[in-house]
Backbone:
């Protein structure tokens, strides 16, 4: 289920515009937990996932449907695991 959430959040990254800058500062980091409702209108940025084989924190900054910017922290599996 965590992998599904990570994939969903990564999918929102396709909506992000590369190289965009803004003077709006994000609010305090919100911590995602299963079932948290997110109003994501536009993804601003995603943190880089490290090349390790363990669960690591990741962050996503997004704008909601009202134009407010949020930063959410969630857990994701690192990119260093190989499937043999």
Residues:
């Amino acid at each position: 289920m965590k992998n599904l959430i990570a994939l969903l959040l990564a999918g929102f990254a396709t909506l992000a515009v590369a190289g965009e800058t803004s003077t709006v500062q994000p609010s305090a980091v919100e911590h995602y937990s299963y079932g948290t409702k997110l109003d994501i209108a536009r993804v601003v940025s995603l943190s880089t996932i490290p090349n390790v084989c363990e669960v690591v924190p990741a962050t996503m900054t997004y704008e909601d449907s009202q134009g407010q910017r949020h930063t959410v922290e969630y857990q994701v599996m690192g990119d260093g695991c190989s499937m043999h």
Summary: The domain at 2-77 is CATH 2.30.140.50 (Spermidine Synthase; Chain: A, domain 2). The two ends are 21 Å apart (CA to CA). The chain has one domain: 2-77.
